[in-house]
């Protein structure tokens, strides 16, 4: 397959290093630094200076030396590396959760997917890779500042705009029913504070058998979303889980779990759309308290009646930080223009 017909971004992952590319440099102690290659540029540390020109044109996986003889292993950053280091305005969906979303929501090549809560674009990148150029991803984001950061990050990883991606500004539950035909969407992915508010919108656009997956941070959000889905009757019984990743220390016979791990980041909850007019079958279970009392809602809901990041313990992102992240993301895309000039 020639580069002209390669899937979007594929040619960015192949061949020798080119100007404008991000390269991960790992020294002999395992310390990693990511730099954007610029003709005539240099990577400076207290160990000396490494000229970018010594890396440009070299094959991926090469080992290069700086002016004092210290060696570096040069590789292109993986998606997981990029996501954790890219400019961000909001917390990103960690790779471990993005992988679960792609698999458990059955995101397939050519799928029509809508998502809400774009944030910095980390999950959008994974979804675009899964649906491919012939698929469709429509992302909804309430804040233009977040959308700008996401656009910059998506264009950086794919080397330009992705043909399958469309991003809209506005509230998901209001906009999706205006812009998507009823029953036309294969998958719905929500990363937001109150997904239960989107029940009618999701039920309208999601095709029968389609998967709805939610990413929520707290037990209270998880419980309220699950009970709302059960009470609605248009979906299958919801399933919920979380994933934890623990690395291992590997050195000779000293093989043991790492002392630190990526533990709780969020909960995932899935349900599937039933055929129109069908009421779901509820599994038989022992009677338990499933209804929310006024006291429960008072405990969970802030005084103004609106769920907010502060209430759920999330860090509030300042407008200044958002502007800086958007500027950084756009700058990364601009530096990547070297690649296009190099190919011309």
Automatic annotation (TrEMBL):
CC annotations in GO: tRNA (m1A) methyltransferase complex
Matches recorded under PROSITE patterns: SAM_TRM61
Keywords: Methyltransferase, S-adenosyl-L-methionine, Transferase, tRNA processing
Compositionally biased intervals (Basic and acidic residues): 11-29
GO biological process, one term: tRNA methylation
Domain tRNA (adenine(58)-N(1))-methyltransferase catalytic subunit TRM61 C-terminal: 84-249
Pfam families attached to this UniProt entry: GCD14, TrmI-like_N
Region (Disordered) residue spans: 1-29, 281-344
Gene Ontology terms, MF aspect: tRNA (adenine(58)-N1)-methyltransferase activity
Gene3D superfamilies xrefs: 3.10.330.20, Vaccinia Virus protein VP39 (3.40.50.150)
UniProt name for this protein: tRNA (adenine(58)-N(1))-methyltransferase catalytic subunit TRM61 C-terminal domain-containing protein
């Amino acid at each position: 397959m020639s580069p002209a017909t390669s899937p979007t971004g594929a040619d960015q992952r192949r061949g020798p290093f080119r100007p404008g590319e991000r390269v991960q440099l790992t020294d002999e102690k395992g310390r990693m630094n990511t730099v954007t290659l610029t003709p005539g540029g240099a990577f400076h540390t207290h160990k000396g200076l490494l000229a970018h020109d010594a890396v440009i044109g070299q094959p991926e996986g090469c080992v290069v030396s700086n002016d004092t003889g210290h060696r570096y292993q040069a590789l292109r950053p993986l998606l997981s590396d990029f996501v954790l280091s890219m400019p961000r305005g909001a917390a990103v969906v960690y790779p471990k959760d993005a992988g679960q979303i792609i698999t458990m929501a059955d995101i397939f090549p050519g799928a029509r997917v809508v998502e809400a809560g774009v944030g910095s674009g980390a999950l959008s990148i994974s979804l675009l890779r899964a649906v491919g150029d012939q698929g469709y991803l429509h992302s909804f984001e309430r804040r233009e500042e977040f959308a700008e950061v996401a656009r910059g990050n998506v264009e950086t990883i794919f080397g330009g705009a992705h043909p399958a991606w469309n991003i809209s500004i506005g509230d998901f539950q209001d906009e999706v029913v205006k812009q998507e035909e009823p029953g036309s969407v294969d998958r719905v992915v929500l990363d937001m504070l109150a997904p239960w508010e989107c029940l009618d919108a999701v039920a309208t656009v999601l095709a029968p058998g389609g998967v709805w997956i939610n990413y929520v941070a707290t037990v209270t959000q998880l419980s309220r979303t699950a009970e709302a889905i059960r009470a609605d009757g248009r979906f299958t019984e919801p399933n919920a889980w979380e994933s934890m990743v623990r690395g291992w220390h590997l050195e000779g016979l000293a093989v043991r779990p790492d002392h630190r791990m990526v533990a709780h980041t969020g909960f995932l909850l899935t349900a599937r759309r039933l055929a129109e007019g069908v009421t779901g079958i509820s599994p038989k279970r022992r009677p338990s308290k499933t209804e929310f009392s006024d006291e429960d809602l008072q405990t969970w809901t802030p005084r103004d009646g609106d769920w907010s990041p502060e209430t759920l313990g999330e860090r509030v992102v300042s407008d200044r930080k958002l502007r800086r992240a958007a500027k950084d993301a756009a700058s990364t895309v601009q530096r990547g223009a070297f690649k296009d000039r190099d190919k011309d």
